[in-house]
Protein 1
Amino acid sequence: MEKKKDHLESKITISECLREWEPHQKKGFDPNETRMSDIFECWTGEKGPGIGLVGIPFDSAVLGRKGAKGGPKKIRDSLRYFKTYDWSLDFWFGDKKVIDFGDIILEAESVAEAHELISDVIHKIASRDYKTITLGGDHSISYPIIKGLKEAYNPKKIGLINIDAHLDVREVINGRITSGTPFRRILDNNLVSADNFVEIGIRNFANARAYRRYVEDKNGLIFTVEDIRENGLVSIIEKTIQRITKGTDLTYISVDMDSLDQIYAPGVSAPTPDGLTPNQIMKIIHSVAVKTNLIGIDIVELNPLYDTADTTAINAANFLVQFISSTFWKYKSKK
Ligand SMILES: [Mn+2]
């Protein structure tokens, strides 16, 4: 049992975070510019407060096309295109740092066991006072992430947003945990109250009526892509923030890359047309990061095997950069 407690040390490949940058990406090439690659540092045991990144190259539970385990590497690689300057805020964060915990190498016998390992690692990272960015991997990992966060922050309450084409509240049938089950597991295990649960980006012809009823009967809130077109993103974000902060202390966002329109995200496990734009998702992330106590984000279901010109991967990296910029901006006056 003692050995099991050392997951963070034994299951993480630190070498993953020492990725090779292209020569022209290295620090010092242009003294007027800092890049995302300059602010990532490998974890060497220090405590937060800060932002911690971890990859979970895991797609054993995927329901669609396999390949999402290649996500973390591709998203990290795509960071090379981003600078540490937020034009819209006129905010430079090149003097900050993000701790890279590497990838969680899972040597699990089953999905359930893999999830236990994930919970344990997320728990440890959060307990060291880091906000967590988790790169998937299939969407099943949101359950163990929330479980780990819930344990780390107990008894504080968490409000949750899932940005997704699908509700992902399937039942676990015959013990089979899939990428379609995470939010039912989260709600049924009372990790998050449905009163504080919002799903955004839900598609027509991509979900079963039974699952809509399940979420609505529990008083969860659902916004389809059409709802955003009809009512405008600003009002949807307002209603979302109201819901996730009502009686809670903390908030969390899960981003399934298939929430994006297929044109921006060909490389996902379960592609669906008529979706969100990158800008809509960036605005949600920014607003929630600035207006609530956002403790983490996961970016899941990038499947590099089906991506074209790294389009989906670069969009995923963009969401990650948005989270980092908005979080640093919120706390800029503090340490
Ligand atoms: Mn999903």
Protein 2
Amino acid sequence: MEVQVAIIGGGASAVSILYSLNKVLDKALDYRINIDIYEPNKEVGRGLAYIEDSEIIKLNRPPIDMSIDIQNKNHFLDWVSKNAKDLYDFSEYLPRSLYGKYLNVNYLETSTSLLKKNIKVNHIREKVRGIKKVTSELYKVLSSGNKESYYNFVILAIGGKNNDDPYDLMEDPNFINEPYPLEEKLYHLKPDDKVGVIGSSLTAIDVFLYLKQKNVKKCTMLSRSGQLPSVRGLDSDINLHYLKEKILRCKNVNLECLLTLFLKEFEEKSISWKEVFLEKNEEENYTTFSKKIRLAKENNTWFDVLRETHPILDEIWVCLNDEERKYFVKRLLPLYIPRRAAIPLINAREILDSLETKDLQIIGGLQRIEQYKNRFRTCFSNNQDNQSFDIIINATGLSGENTNNELIETMLEDNLISTHIAGGIRVDFNTGSVISNENKTNPNIKAIGHITSGNFFVVNNLEFIAKKSFEISCDLANHIKNNIMSKEFA
Ligand SMILES: Cc1cc2nc3c(=O)[nH]c(=O)nc-3n(C[C@H](O)[C@H](O)[C@H](O)COP(=O)(O)OP(=O)(O)OC[C@H]3O[C@@H](n4cnc5c(N)ncnc54)[C@H](O)[C@@H]3O)c2cc1C
């Protein structure tokens, strides 16, 4: 008897799920499990974020936040110590490509370990186009090359996709829609090229750091907000007094009470929440960015609060009603994300230097970019900053719209899954099992990551992925065990 499992997508989520499954199933099974990972890219693990690229682009979190093992925060650090100790300074943020290697090595090691337990893992280098229900226990996966394969369990781990071509410039050879891998896409840029980078967040910063290393002098970040993310100083341990799990669990939590507790926590720690969250909405420049660096260096407690409350907020998110969640996503998340995804001081200093020399400029109020006499012309709301560029790079990052892809659309049409009012598809909070329009939870189809955004507070970080992978693996292992004796899998 063999249980068939398909994991669609071979990024960090797929590796974390396999890793957890290997822990959960601690001894050899007396039945077989076959796991097919569908991933068109050559290496499992790297996904969109951790592809082989310049080492200048770093993780946006310290290594202890990047462990795929939820019981061992040092799992990634230990791997680096063992395999690349002399190459890296552990006090710094480590390269994303190194993290991709960690994931890939873990995938290979976990697959070997699982094989000894009667679980075979295969990497199928194909893209999945559709999933059809055969029975409640059997699903047909249609992949590129018109292949059809049958599975008892399917896990959607497809990640997100980049915001495509926001100003309709795709036809122009000097427009770079997808900047990663930077070493491949931007290698040809010359020092005197005048480069416009759309965006001023994490992807734009990766692009800028790479261009700086290549001596490209005239770089302008063009965005709507004109703001850079906050800066993260050195982390310290803190005790929370108000936003404690115990207190929150006793209360009937709603958004208003949550915000009150947040402000009390800030007040108790003598942090000016206005300084952190309500800085004037002016364009970032040398002076404003110096202030952000000073705030990070002098008192990083505001960040410690955000870091410590992050896991708790995830638990609370499920208690908020749909209207509150919609309000939060629209009004508060844009304030929260640039601060929670703050950049490390090492990168902030590079940015500050270039703002001072004017090698980097940041302009807000972007309305349009159009082709004009073999170049690009920008249009801003104030009409005064309009400029022309030789090259435009799209660095707007992941798209918020995550259900518009062929696979998800067909599954929605067949009512195998349903959309969540706050974004993505509906899943059960604890098991990742998808939920249909009729509110039926299906333990045979699970989803993780970007596609599940509306259900959780913030889905796009490794800590979350590792935690959810563990929960999904436990539930999957239980279902397989409970069902294996039934004839359903015959
Ligand atoms: C540029 C960037 C930098 C980031 N940096 C950090 C960081 O420093 N720290 C952090 O914690 N988080 C970071 N993140 C968030 C990151 O997305 C998560 O940490 C994590 O990598 C998500 O993993 P995933 O497997 O869910 O998605 P992904 O890593 O995106 O993997 C999904 C995989 O699914 C495959 N796929 C998609 N559709 C199909 C299909 N139909 N059939 C078959 N395969 C398919 C794709 O090819 C891809 O390989 C970053 C994200 C990005 C985009």
Protein 3
Amino acid sequence: MAGRMAGKSVMVVGAGASGPGWGNGKAAAVLYAREGARVFAIDRNADAAEETCAIIRGEGGAAEAFAADAARADDVAAMVDACLARFGLPDVLHHNVGIVMTGGPAETAEADWDRLMAVNVKSLYLVCRALLPDMAERGQGVIVAVSSVASLRYVGYPSVAYCASKGAVNQLVQNIAVQYAARGIRANAVLPGLMDTPMVVEPLKEAYGPGGVERMRAARNAQVPTGRMGSAWDVAHAALFLASDEAAYVNGHMLVVDGGLTAKFA
Ligand SMILES: NC(=O)c1ccc[n+]([C@@H]2O[C@H](COP(=O)([O-])OP(=O)(O)OC[C@H]3O[C@@H](n4cnc5c(N)ncnc54)[C@H](O)[C@@H]3O)[C@@H](O)[C@H]2O)c1
């Protein structure tokens, strides 16, 4: 089914990866391009955004990188202006940025809470605030936000700021879905479970007890009914479906992609 995004433009916010290999945003950006979309790849790490674009161009696709911190209103205004000037109003906003932090309320510093909420929640509000009026006027637009199963469940160790932020993402998406449905806009979220991506390595390597990355990987694999963590491509394929016209009647949906993890009792 090649060409599912032919003729469309996608703004991917958080299009790089925080380490070697495939992160969710990087895989999604490349998959959108493989399906025919032009990709406006935003990341606060300019090199990471450029690396994703180089992969896309190397495969014959179209992509442009832009460096911005999506948690800052002035950066969001600049990145939206740049996208409008070079790509026009995007057909799809794929919002991937998110950072992980462990700890309960007593272990979470106020500044860290504020920063995490700004990156995980406020960034989505800022980009939607900038794009939705024009999308509504055009009568067409799709928002795909990357949330987490941590928005639904305790994940096995305290991570109160992260879980709360993802719960907020879900409600942001559902509010937008309902408010803008009659104006041709769909908003959905992908809720990944335990994925084997670069973003979890540093923040979570001690969350599963001493033993480092290999113990963390083994513990996460064992938690999932399928016996393994998912990959960035599992998230990307779910996002592609939500972004595509095949999901024309899917709106306000929280699409869990977790190998059966949240269906499990213990
Ligand atoms: N890996 C998992 O197990 C897992 C599980 C559930 C949900 N998620 C979600 O997936 C998303 C990220 O996945 P990933 O694999 O792409 O992570 P990643 O860390 O590899 O990539 C995220 C990219 O976003 C960029 N970024 C971070 N903050 C930014 C900001 N303020 N402005 C602009 N760019 C910024 C980073 O530089 C990085 O390149 C997050 O929303 C995360 O909560 C991941």
